[in-house]
From TrEMBL:
Name this polypeptide is given: Glycosyltransferase
Domain Glycosyltransferase subfamily 4-like N-terminal: 32-194
Alphabetized InterPro entries for the sequence: Glyco_trans_4-like_N
TM spans (from-to): none
Pfam families reported for this sequence: Glyco_trans_1_4, Glyco_transf_4
Length: 430
């Protein structure tokens, strides 16, 4: 959870009005993840105007994206049974209240749902802003009795207590209003921003000679992201196996995650030859699928690829997709909730019925989701046909790659950061 406090006026113990430019940002952890990267970007950018302190439940996962700003750990671990989790939750609420009393922030901004609840219930100094990073309605991890409690009780009851709610995608707002009963006037969409120049510079780094040989041996499809349920990579392996029956190609995964063994196993079950960067096997052109693991510079693997493929089941405003677009290669993405349609076809709205065909949009290709068992075979066939069509059409690839790069000029730090400052100033003045 992320807590943000910005320049406002606070009442001191002597009852005099004292200005403060303190901001408190709260997030559950500082490990690897898209929300953590956005948290880091906000922390760095807002520190140019405010005094920023980062707060985190604990530092057990380290700090994957250090910002240089002070970090305060609430020193409350996660895990355990239901009783222990409940006790830890209320400890976080208590510790955050103490931190708010100490820092006297003007605004507290939380990132991720767990942090939102702690932010909303802790009380103390500071207006409350929530940053919603992904679809709540379609998040398959919000399930079972606890998921029902979160969707039906906690979010509808608590979220309206916030002073403002920021969604990173336009399509999250109607979910919050229509399904969770959040007041529309509390919600503002501010897209994630991207360090365009930094991505472009890193994308110029050369691959090793062995990696260059792989990329030169056949067209390369690349995907980037954690190996998790949300990213839905297993059906992509099925599509790729079908594609290989019709032409040579390579599939490169950049990233790691808790489903690593399952996804590697699924690749082998489909008869694909697998390279694993964490194994002792040497890198060569003899493999079909390459698992490159977590990379400090994923962009050097994306830019020289032929296509970027993005099979996610749900998103927010996906950083990996935007960074691939900055690299100037054509992107093929599921029309999942939320983000890809807003990025690739911004003048359109989500169809009433799930997409069942390839939609050649202005800035990329939107594809059927690969999550419906009833239509799975037909949807995989659409993916295979579309990828083969793109691999055979260099002109279309160049056009889409150039358009994707152009689109990302709408999401530069300079364009987006000012929207956050304006929101915070508006909240402070309320």
């Amino acid at each position: 959870m992320l807590l943000l406090v910005v320049g406002s006026y606070i009442l001191s113990f002597s009852t005099s009005i004292v200005p403060t430019d303190a901001i408190l940002l709260l997030i559950p952890n500082l490990g690897m993840g898209g929300a953590q990267r956005v948290f880091h970007d906000h922390s760095v950018e807002l520190a140019k105007r405010y005094t920023v302190t980062e707060a985190v439940f604990n530092l057990e996962g380290g700090d994957a994206y250090p910002s240089g700003n002070p970090v305060v750990s609430l020193e409350v671990s996660g895990g355990g049974g239901a009783l222990e989790k409940t006790q830890n939750f209320w400890r976080r609420v208590k510790e955050l209240r103490r931190l708010r009393e100490k820092k006297r922030p003007a605004v507290v901004v939380s990132h991720l749902e767990g942090a939102d609840y702690v932010n909303l219930l802790s009380g103390g100094p500071g207006k409350i802003v929530l940053c919603i990073h992904g679809s709540k309605l379609h998040d398959a991890n919000i399930n079972g009795p606890v998921g029902w409690l979160r969707k039906r009780i906690l979010m509808p009851w608590l979220y309206n207590r916030a002073d403002a709610i920021v969604t990173v995608s336009r399509d999250i707002k109607p979910e919050l209003v229509d399904f969770f009963g959040v007041k529309a006037e509390k919600i503002l969409t501010i897209n994630n921003f991207f360090e365009v120049a930094d991505v472009e510079a890193k994308a110029q780094e050369l691959l090793s000679l062995a990696e260059q040989a792989v990329y030169a041996s056949a067209p390369v499809l690349v995907t980037s992201g954690r190996l998790t349920r949300q990213k839905n990579q297993v059906p992509l392996l099925t599509v790729f196996a079908h594609l290989l029956r019709q032409q040579p190609a390579k599939l490169v995964f950049v990233g790691d995650g808790e489903l690593r063994d399952d996804i590697v196993g699924a690749a082998r079950q489909r008869g694909l030859r697998v390279y694993e960067a964490w194994s002792s096997a040497g890198l060569s052109t003899e493999y079909d699928v390459y698992f490159m693991g977590m990379q400090t510079n994923p962009f050097k693997y994306i830019k020289p690829a032929t296509l970027f493929v993005f099979p996610s089941a749900w998103e927010g405003f996906p950083m990996a997709l935007g960074e691939a677009m900055i690299c100037g290669i054509p992107v093929v993405s599921t029309d999942c909730p939320t983000g890809p349609r807003e990025m690739l076809a911004p003048t359109t709205t989500a169809p009433a019925l799930a997409l069942r065909h390839a939609e050649w949009a202005e800035f990329g290709v939107l594809m059927p989701m690969l999550t419906n068992e009833t239509t799975q075979l037909a949807d995989e066939a659409v993916w295979t046909t579309t990828l083969l069509q793109l691999l055979a059409d260099k002109g279309a690839r160049q056009r889409l790659g150039q358009a994707a790069r152009r689109r990302m000029n709408d999401f530069t730090r300079e364009r987006i950061a000012g929207q956050w400052v304006q929101l915070l100033e508006d909240v402070i003045r309320k």
